[in-house]
Structures are given as structure tokens and as C-alpha cells.
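Re: that backbone. C-alpha cells:
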């Protein structure tokens, strides 16, 4: 049977976000179990929110997509805070902290580029 794909699944930023979710799950597997309903849950949900908002917003109007992309960027900042807390609690290493931040910075730049492209398309459509 043929696999059904949605347009947003081909976005590189979406694929990078899925990779980051896997990264977060691997990190949080090592956290203290008493964090199951605290930092583990928050970190996993924040990472998921990046991808969820990309997927949800991509099928909407261009201005609405920009709004969802901004929400994704907020979730990126939330992941930065979760990373910092995890480092301070010694749940992750300095290298894992650096890797998390690199990935988040890359996703953030990709989202910013996509938003710029969408804004350009909005401006072009107003001029035509």
C-alpha cells in the first residue's frame, strides 16, 4: 500500500525537528525518575511542540503559518531553558548541552528563513 504524505513532511526544518525530538527522548531517558512528571515531560512536550506547530501551521494561510512558526520559536526557547535546567541538575553533560543548543539554533535559523520566505510571498501577492 502506498504511503500518504503531507506537504509539511518534506520541509527540512520539520525533519530536523523530528531528529531533535529523538535527541530529547534519548537525553531524558537518563534523567532521574522523579522528574517523570516534571522536567522530562516538559522537555519532551516542548520539543514536540516545535514540530506540531510547523505541521499545524503549514496547512493554514500564510499569515497564520507565521504565527505558528513564532509559537514554534517559543517552544525552541523553552527547550533552551529545559536544557539549562538539565545541565544545572547534572542530568546532562556539557557536551550534551552544547549539542542541544546547536540543534536548537539550527532549527531556529531554518524557521526564520522559512518565515522570511513566506513574508516575501505575502508581499509579492499584495503587489500583484
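Recovered sequence:
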Amino acid at each position: 500500500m502506498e504511503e500518504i504524505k503531507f506537504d509539511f513532511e518534506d520541509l527540512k526544518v520539520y525533519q530536523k525537528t523530528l531528529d531533535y525530538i529523538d535527541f530529547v527522548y534519548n537525553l531524558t531517558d537518563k534523567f532521574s525518575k522523579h522528574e517523570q512528571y516534571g522536567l522530562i515531560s516538559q522537555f519532551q512536550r516542548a520539543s514536540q511542540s516545535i514540530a506540531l506547530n510547523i505541521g499545524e501551521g503549514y496547512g493554514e494561510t500564510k499569515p497564520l503559518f507565521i504565527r505558528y512558526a513564532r509559537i514554534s520559536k517559543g517552544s525552541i526557547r523553552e527547550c533552551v531553558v529545559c536544557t539549562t535546567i538539565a545541565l544545572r541538575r547534572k542530568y546532562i553533560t556539557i557536551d550534551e548541552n552544547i549539542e542541544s543548543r546547536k540543534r536548537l539554533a539550527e532549527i531556529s535559523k531554518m524557521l526564520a528563513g522559512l518565515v522570511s520566505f513566506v513574508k516575501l510571498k505575502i508581499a509579492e501577492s499584495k503587489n500583484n
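The chain has a mean pLDDT of 96. The helical segments are 12-28, 39-58, 62-88, 94-127.
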